[in-house]
Amino acid sequence: MLKADAPTRPRGIEDLLSADLLARIGPLDVTSRRVFSGKLKGERRSKRRGESVEFADHRPYVSGDDLRHIDWNLFARLDILFLKLFLEEEDLALHLVFDASASSDCGSPSKFLFMQKAAMALGYVGLTNLNRVACTAIGGLPPKDQPPALTRAIRDLRGRRRAIDLAQFICSIEPGGSTDFRAAAERIALSRRGKGVMILFSDFLFKEGYEAGLRLLVGRGYDLIVVQVLSPQEINPTVAGDLKLKDVEDNDSAEVTISAPLLKRYSQTLTAYTDRLREFCGRRGIQSMLVRSDSPIDSLLLDSLRKRGVLR
Amino acid sequence: MTFLTPLYAAIAAAIAIPTLLILYFLKLRRQELEISSTLLWKKAIQDLQANAPFQKLRRNILLLLQLLALAAAILALGQPQFNASSLVGQRHVILIDRSASMATLDAGDERSPISRLDAAKDAAASFVQGLREPGLIDRDAGDLAMVIAFDREAAVIQQFTGDKRKLEQAIRSITPSDGPSNLEPAVRLARAQAPKLFLPEDNLVIEGISDRWPISLQVFTDGRLPDADRATPGPSDTVVFHRLGKPDTGNLGVIALRADREFDDPSKVSVFAAVQNTFPQPKRIDVQLSVDGVPAGIKELTVPPLADGRGGTQGIAFPLSRAEGASIEVRLLQPPGSPGDLDSFSTDDRATLVIQPAKSLRLALVTSGNLLLRYALESLPQSGDPKVLSPAEYEAALRSGQAFDFDVVVLDGIPVAWRDKKNTLPPGRYLVFNHLPNTIDPASLPARDPATPPTPLGPVLIDRGPAGPSSVVSWRRDHRALRSVNLDTLDIFESRQIDIPEGSSVQSLAESTAGPIIVELSTSETRALVVGFDPAASDWPQDLSFIIFLSYATDYLGTGGGWAVVRSSQPGLTVSDRLPDNASLLECSGPGGISVGAGLASDGSASFGPFPRVGIYTASWRGSAAPGDRTRSGRVERDFAVNLLDPVESDVRSAEQIALATQEASASQADAASVVRSLWPWLLLAALSVVVLEWYIYNRKVHV
Fold first, then answer.
1. What is the dotted CATH code of the domain comprising B84-195+211-248+652-671?
2. For position A262, what pLDDT does the model report?
3. Which ranges constitute the DSSP H helices of B149-274?
């Protein structure tokens, strides 16, 4: 919950992905409950009949079909032209979005670091499986000599070699400032390329609400997965005494005297808030999950996302 | 409500309240903390506030509670007490009447009444509980109290103290007595015990100004105090009359009892009893006479009702034939068939007497041949034949000591001398006619200053020589020797002129136109009735009163005024009786085994008492027995009867007010008996409770 005085920042892929983690997530691949048409032939079996080597079915030949796909053996036996159908193999668009607002940079361990690591791991999985990987940071401080922007993104990464680029992008994001989640979501939705899986990391503590932003994202045909990252201090506050709590994003303040009833009420409010997010997502076919920032990345990938069918 | 230390409270209030307000208005300095979002915290606070009532008061409720706690603490510092204003003095004397009438069972609940004394103890104990306790800061601010119990006499049960436990123990230790009540000694004792004012800078003594602290006299009594008008509390003293009992409580009681043996037949005894009724209606009762514990007769008696504020009285007589001694009891009984008890005061429902066996007096007549006196004395029923002695024989008897065997010596104009003192009566009992013993020369009297009290001279007379004819002007009708004697018709032809000098202890029993004519001389060893004329030189012998006088006078002298017939006393008094010369190891015990004092005086008489309760007391000693005494286990025993026999004490209607010599105290003051309660412990408790409540609210509270 509290902002760290001197947060540690990852400098490269080696800070984001440990060798052990790499070994464990190597066999994983990103999947989707929905089938999207890819732009490039990928390593993904599509439900579309395509041009891969994997046989799917026969169908009668109609005029105009590619003669190369006629099953000549069958024609020899039956004297009827049948076309051999193969499973199409396509690539998948994987869009990783993480919240780089000042509120993300709080907690111990930092929520932002967790999101960076999770995005890198998922991006690596996507790149390894020849998926089209894009990564967008919402908010964050602008780099030197650049104007502030709602979002910053890197797109169309494909292949394991681009993992370095992804890591560089992720490491280049400096969290800070406030977030206009709705505007950022709108920007992301408008600039999308193709359909695919979008995994959104944020604490979702948006004062203006998350509903409008999520509606924009889910309406564009993404298979949206929402990962709410909260620090342990946000889930179980350890503060005490007479405090003036200051919001790191908008400098709003709240004077509180910590007491048992207040902590109980806070806990109830937090539970209600996360439940409401989960309910909102559930109604719209969005997968959601709550993750503590002190939980290991591999458990997020190997357990939580795998159970939900995001990875396999 | 008053405050013991209001100044302390005011100073504390002046400091603490502004300080609290200043502290409250100084904002709490909160620690600043940067967090990811205030979103959830604000929601939580809003929820809490939405659930809490009186949100608008929330800001101030802590201040209000703090002010409340502070106010309670400051009030406690002032040490408030309830009703303290109604008590003037800080020194209280609790006077508890324990006389006979306080045993009346008309206090408390109607169905299970308690005695007035028990109610008085309860009231006094609650009064003690109401005394102001010493303050926390000023230890002298508390009250002190003293406990005095009184009946005929007063006794200090507890000296001045502020210890409520001691005072209550003293009050509870008071035992009832059957004596009458006298307030005057109690007030005198209370005044004597009151602490003296210490005025070191003031050497002046102002006439009439008491040098003692003003005290508040808390009198717990039923108001039956015949001597209240003699009680003189100090001019600044407060008297509070705590009335016990009811003003309409009626009573039937024996107020007089005596027994007389008849002159002509001493074996016949007449027992007289008088019964008083203070009920507003006439009462028919049975009066039972018991002799030695055995009922000897019951008579019905109707006693007239209360009239003009005085109880109705009715006498009753029981004739009895009893030559030997006996103990007699008269008891008032409810007639058969009448419901309930006779009355609520039982002490006077019975009275006892101890009558002595009939006996003859041993008389000696020393005369030169007066036949008149000789025949008159021989005719007396209670005496055997008197021994007639000439003056010479009497002197010889004096020298041999035989003269002291006579109960009464009648001297007919004979001067006597004792141990070379002329004209001085030897020890004994004498009836002297026509001669004045113990005379002194008026010239030997010292010149007297009128401003100083006279010097005690003893039983001495001045013989002023012969007086002419005279007649009797007045006489002491209540004296046992002159009872029923009518001297109105007595004409004296020649008498001695008797003068009783100032300072003499001689009492005049009859006055003639020429001065005292019958006088009584009394010392511890000698008692004499002196008739200052020769009966032959008057017309007395022709009158019946002469014989009656001789009879009563010899009886009075020979028996000590009735002791020969009955031995009776009242509670609270002592009695003196003559015991045999060799009596020793005296003891005296009474009803219920109570032991009373017994002692031998230098003149050979024994004193017993004072007697606390009514009933039969038994004196016992080692030695020889007199006629009528009984011997048991080697000790000689003699009984005394102690009875209330007091019309005032038997009238148990409680008084509305008591009128003292200097002021009156009404019962209404006691009805509003004040109870002083210290409030500071409760206030401190309240302050603590408020602080706890505030702490609870503080923990519940969230201030945004």
1. 3.40.50.410
2. 84
3. 164-172, 183-193
> What is the distance between the alpha carbons of residues B581 and B570, in angstroms, rounded to a whole number?
26
User: What pLDDT digit, counting tens, does each position of B568-590 carry?
Assistant: 788 888 887 767 767 788 889 88
At residue B673, the pLDDT reads 45
User: Which chain B residue lies closest to A264 (C-alpha atoms)?
Assistant: B44
Between B594 and B563, the more confident residue is: B594
B260-349 fold: Immunoglobulin-like (2.60.40)
Chain A residues inside the 8 Å CB shell of B694: none
In chain B, which residues touch A (CB < 8 A)?
28, 30-45, 47-48, 699-704
Residue of B nearest to A250 (CA): B37
Residue A174, strand partner residues: A141
Of the residues A265, A275, A276, the best mutation for testing chain B's interface (the one with the most B CB atoms within 10 Å of its CB) is A265
Record the pTM.
Answer: 0.51
Contact B703 A252 (CB under 8 A): no
Give a three-class secondary structure readout of A192-260: CCCCEEEEEEECCCCCCCCHHHHHHHHCCCCEEEEEEEECHHHHCCCCCCEEEEEECCCCCEEEEECCH
- Whether B142 contacts B132, CB under 8 Å: yes
Q: To 5 degrees, how large is the angle CA B491–CA B493–CA B495?
A: 105
Sheet architecture: strand order including A93-99: A151-157, A132-138, A93-99, A196-202, A223-230, A287-292
CATH code of the domain made up of A13-36+91-307? 3.40.50.410
Please report which confidence band the pLDDT of residue B73 belongs to, taking 50, 70 and 90 as the band edges: confident
DSSP assignment, residue B84?
G
User: Any residues with CB less than 8 A from the CB of B487 and at least 6 apart, and which?
Assistant: B472, B475, B510, B545
Burial label, A148 (beta-carbon count in 10 A; 0-12, 13-18, 19+)? exposed
How confident is the model over A260-297, as pLDDT tens digits?
888 888 999 999 999 999 999 999 888 899 999 999 88
Which element (helix H / strand E) includes B607? strand B605-608
Helix crossing, A163-172 with A111-128: angle to 10°? 160
